[in-house]
Design brief:
globular, binds magnesium ion, binds 2-succinylbenzoate, alpha/beta, three-stranded antiparallel sheet, 385 residues, TIM Barrel, Enolase-like, domain 1
């Protein structure tokens, strides 16, 4: 196991600061499990600021939300696990090997790992993507799409799709749930016969719903994302053979072995890789490698990250094994303003976003906006308790 955290910093880890934040979303994202923004469309996160004794810093973002909706982690469990276990374990160390003593909490782990990797990348004068890619050829632009939440009506959805297509997004993902599925997808497909279109159920269905879901199978969807249970691989193995449309697993993939299991039992044909869901960059690289060698289409998922998390996702999306459009949209789809000084914009001609090329994460955090977002976190946390 020890080889799983092989990255070593020349200078030891001297300080780690946690910044819980709440940021107003430009557009809330309603999914089958609820609204990600919580009250007032404020998205919560924890930024991790790591400093090496040399003074070099790195940042990471923990994408756990207010509530255990997408996964069991929340901002408060992440703060607890980071503050009481992960951080005391790694302070003074040159690597993250001490994290082996602890299980679970992948989103908290990923945030710390990203902060460490971006500091090490800076120490080595490399962009994070070059450290991840070990010098292999990478893309300068990541191909991306946009994720659209559950809307009050089909007409409202069509209006948003039109806006997003006008902006230049070439792949549209629609959130579906029970009662917001077949009519919606049929209406959108008939309005836009040729666009790259997909649906994400976030585990809203069971195997008994196969006949209902079958009605999506002739709509030429790019994929159907996570139709069944958030822990399930087995039942997806019963569903996929009934479908022409590829099933993509999101929630239920946590390790490279989960991907191997999915392939072995035919539970899905595409992987949505969220580094936060799989516990960091090392496991992400393992999954990338399985997908690359097995020819499994792969894309990078999103969790409404600020510029910090988005920069890490873009670095991953630049790897050669990422072959489908990723859920990484332009800054103006999420925050106005974002926490980072850099703004990510969509290249409308090819539905891409430029991968940061600066050393480390390639973005810098605006201290004033960070402080305001921290105040907003404590205000919102006090209001709900
Ligand atoms: O299932 O991919 C998902 C956001 C929060 C929780 C789950 C999901 C999502 C998204 C957001 O789809 C995609 C993005 O960040 O643009
Ligand atoms: Mg998903």
């Amino acid at each position: 196991m020890a080889e799983s955290y092989p990255l070593r910093a020349e200078s030891p880890i001297s300080h780690i600061r946690l910044h819980p934040i709440a940021m107003p979303l430009v557009e809330n994202l309603v999914t089958s499990f609820g609204s990600d923004g919580g009250q007032d469309s404020l998205r919560a996160a924890v930024l991790v600021e790591l400093e090496l004794a040399s003074g070099i810093t790195g940042w990471g973002e923990c994408v756990a939300s207010w509530a255990p909706g997408y996964s069991y982690e929340t901002t408060e469990t992440a703060l607890h696990v980071l503050r009481d276990f992960f951080i005391p374990g790694v302070l003074g160390q040159h690597d993250l090997g001490k994290l082996h003593a602890f299980r679970g909490h992948p989103m908290a782990r990923m945030a710390l790992e990203t902060a460490f990797w971006s500091a090490v990348a800076t120490e080595r004068n490399l962009a994070l993507g070059d450290l991840l890619g070990s010098g292999a050829p990478r893309k300068g632009r990541a191909t991306v799409g946009v994720s659209i939440g559950i809307q009050p009506s089909i007409d409202a959805t069509l209006a948003i799709i039109e806006k997003r297509l006008d902006e230049g997004y070439q792949r549209i993902k629609l959130k579906i749930k029970r009662g917001w599925d077949v009519d919606l997808m049929r209406a959108v497909r008939s309005a836009y016969p040729d666009i790259m279109l997909m649906a994400d159920a976030n585990s809203a269905y069971t195997l008994d719903d196969a006949p209902l879901l079958k009605q999506l199978d002739d709509l030429n969807l790019l994929m159907i994302e996570q139709p069944l249970g958030y822990l399930d691989i087995y039942q997806h193995g019963k569903l996929q053979p009934q479908f022409q449309t590829p099933i993509c697993l999101d929630e239920s993939i946590h390790t490279a072995d989960d991907v191997r299991l999915m392939l072995q039992i035919g539970a899905g044909r595409i992987i949505n890789l969220k580094p936060a869901r799989v516990g960091g960059l090392i496991e992400s690289l393992k999954i990338h490698e399985v997908c690359r060698t097995e020819g499994v289409p792969l894309w990078i998922g999103g969790m409404l990250e600020t510029g910090v998390g988005r920069a890490a996702n873009l670095a991953l999306a630049s790897l050669s094994g990422v072959t489908l459009p990723s859920d990484i949209s332009a800054t103006n789809r999420y925050y106005d303003p974002d926490l980072t000084e850099e703004v990510f914009t969509l290249n409308a001609e090819d539905s891409t976003i430029d991968v940061p090329q600066g050393i480390g994460l390639g973005v810098s955090v605006d201290r004033e906006r960070l402080a305001a977002a921290e105040v907003a976190y404590y205000k919102a946390a006090a209001a709900v308790s």
